[in-house]
Amino acid sequence: MNKVSTGIQGFDETIDSLRLGDNVVWQVDDIESYQKVVTAFVKQALVTQRRIIYIRFGKHQQLISTDMNVKTYQVKAANGFEQFATQIHRLIEQEGREVFYVFDCLTDLLNSWSSDLMIGNFFKVCCPYLYELNTVAYFALTRNVHTYETIARIRETTQVLLDLYAVNQLHYIHPLKVWERYSPTMFFPHLINHNQVKSITSSAESTALFSHVNRIEERMDYWNRLLTEARQLVELESDQSVDMKQRLMLLLIGEKSRMYDLCERFFTLEDIIAIAQREIGTGFIGGKSVGMLIARKILATDPEQRFNHLLEAHDSFYIGSDIFYTYIVQNGWWKERMDQKTKQGYYKSAEKLRKKLLTGHFPNHIREQFMQMLEYYGQSPIIVRSSSLLEDNFGNAFAGKYESVFCVNQGSPDERYQALEAAIREVYASTMNPEALEYRLNRGLAQKDEQMAILVQRVSGDHYGKWFYPHVAGVGHSANLYVFDQSIDSNAGMLRMVFGLGTRAVDRTVDDYARLVTLDQPERTPLMDHNDGKKFAQKKVDLLDLLANKLSEERLDDVIGQQTQVDRRLFATIDHFAGIRLRELGYKNIPDPHTLDFKRLLTETNFPHVLKEMLNRLAEIYDYPVDIEFTANFDSKSNFKINLVQCRPLQTRGLGKSASMELIPIGADSFIDTTSHFMGGNLNLPLDYIIYVEMDDYLSLPEQDKYAVARYIGRLTRKLKQSRIMLIGPGRWGTSTTSLGVPVHFSEIQHVDVLCEVASAHKGFEPELSYGSHFFQDIVEANIFYIAIFEGQPNVSFTPSYLSKFNDVSEQYLAADPQIAKIIKCYHTTGMTVQADIIEQRLVCR
């Protein structure tokens, strides 16, 4: 029957011994009592020549002396739940079957995690695996420290649960659960006297014993006790407040970092407590939440008080990262989580786990907190946003890699609750999206804890009939990434702005455009004529349809025509010429259409100045360019309130933070080394292919053959669209005049990552490049990085012969026309990277 001795003979008889597979949990008053039963267990196991493993993580005294033949593993709980649980899982896997384990007291994990919830989670993932391998494992908990809920989860999972009392220098064991064993006296307390055991069956003796046992009615979670202590320190104005603030910040914000330093500088202990009071569960609130909160605090504490009266009140909740783990553990998916962390299962197991994450259930106490949050918001629309630990920090943006889900929040309480849960599941599942996995892998983050917290925000805006939306939304950069004219100050910042929800400013929308605003000259546009103004303007509006209870896309004229509370001319100009043309075409009773140009907003209000000052303030404090998301709402007098919904350091596209250009000496062997003439921000992008159109050969072609070159390029970029491509050629891409460049359509090059145009003074070919061209707006919308090379100018190095190092695959893709293959060269550029730094204003491709 595989019986195993506790090392206390009389107690073995009482509980009919332990069994292989048993997890044994001791509730103790002190560590010395636990050490006594551990010593008896280990000595007996050594006699029977069992392999014994000691898992050491606590700050308490060592349980097993070094002179015993016991293998010890030191595991750091301070590295976080996932690393701790993963390391223990791996060592259990490595040690194999029928091993005996002794764990330090689990209560000591509170020193690192401050969460009863996570101790319960660790036990629920560790215990079943130990049982599966037919081990016997000893654990301890300090009595009257943990919540009843934590004890209930452990009782449900373990095979044996025992109370160990020390009363008047006597020791008593009281079995509370002994799985699949029973005797008439098993669940009485038992006095332990060496190997002798006496069952306490007398009511008088039992009453006398339990009169010495401290039992409390309600046990507050350790995290809540910590917050209670913090509030008391605030009231007492105690000197210990600084230490408490740092302690809470490590638990809410994360390890020491540049973002942590900003938070420590600006947040008070009262601020940290206020954040904690809006957290559901425990754990980190994640990068997006931290970025939003610290940015708002920086603006609120502006010495000149320029912004406080213009900011919408903050009204968000945070679902702590511990809930993400709890959700996985509660639904029994930890094995899949471990499989996904392996090299073989990184992608394969991720898809299985992603599907499961969409189907799970939350614990009842978490569901209740979700419901209370939903009751707080009432029927106001909310957005459920990813806020992972790695997100929105210095070096890693994860922009667009994880989901954000609108909850229009209409219907019955149950319908609204079900929609909230579904949104949370969708965000959790997005951690296993292929794009997110690839992003983490490329940045060396595959094995780091990616703890998904969630930011829940009230959607900024108002009801307009059946629709809900803000007047203005968009993104802002403190450094202008797309300077289309040399007179523009790149340090003044820029906006990409839309009417309605900001989704159209954040995401690429086919055939629709955000308004690009240069904040030093907000009235300036890169457009050439009146028709461009209509073509490159926003034509549809993203909004929330309250009747349909969904995110919707509507025609601009349908939406703005119902805007009666504010002056719609702030945002749009009536196009009388288009109205006349429509009537000439026979359309009757149709109002003149609008062109969304934000002309009056940008020229007759201080809105662009305020955004410029906000961005400058944030960049100054961050000591780094920043990227924000914002909304704005106006009243009948054109007064406005701004809601800052996100802020992060301006990120590098590609492989995270760009290498310092100082490490690449001027004149180093490279394909391109240039200053200033690039647009798109910081870049650190490995290139798979470079498509290169040689200037001399192209310019010597007849006009018709130049059009043929353009069509071939379109076919080639479509074939390679899953790869990272740089397209480089003479003059202006997309020109209608073949003598000035290559006449491609934008649809033919929309899949490239980097677009490069070359002008050469010594070859007499100096057309105006795409600064200010029709193509410019499409480049911005498609998020294509742009480089202009003015060959022969100072600080510009361009060496086409550098490409001879790489494999020329032109004939493979252009074999049908050898003549074209001589003009369009395609190189497979394994190992080549293009790097750009907007602070150092230098770009290198090598």
From TrEMBL:
Catalytic activity: pyruvate + ATP + H2O = phosphoenolpyruvate + AMP + phosphate + 2 H(+)
Ranges where the Pyruvate phosphate dikinase AMP/ATP-binding domain occurs: 285-657
Keyword Disulfide bond: no
Alphabetized SUPFAM superfamilies for the sequence: Glutathione synthetase ATP-binding domain-like
Entry EC number(s): 2.7.9.2
Cofactor(s) annotated in UniProt: Mg(2+)
Tagged with keyword Cell inner membrane: no
Keywords: ATP-binding, Kinase, Magnesium, Metal-binding, Nucleotide-binding, Pyruvate, Transferase
Cross-referenced InterPro entries: ATP_grasp_subdomain_1, PEP_synth, PPDK_AMP/ATP-bd
Pathway: Carbohydrate biosynthesis; gluconeogenesis
One term of GO molecular function: pyruvate, water dikinase activity
Record's function text: Catalyzes the phosphorylation of pyruvate to phosphoenolpyruvate.
Similarity remark: Belongs to the PEP-utilizing enzyme family.
Protein name: Phosphoenolpyruvate synthase
Provenance organism: Amphibacillus marinus
Highest classification ranks of the organism: Bacteria, Bacillati, Bacillota, Bacilli, Bacillales
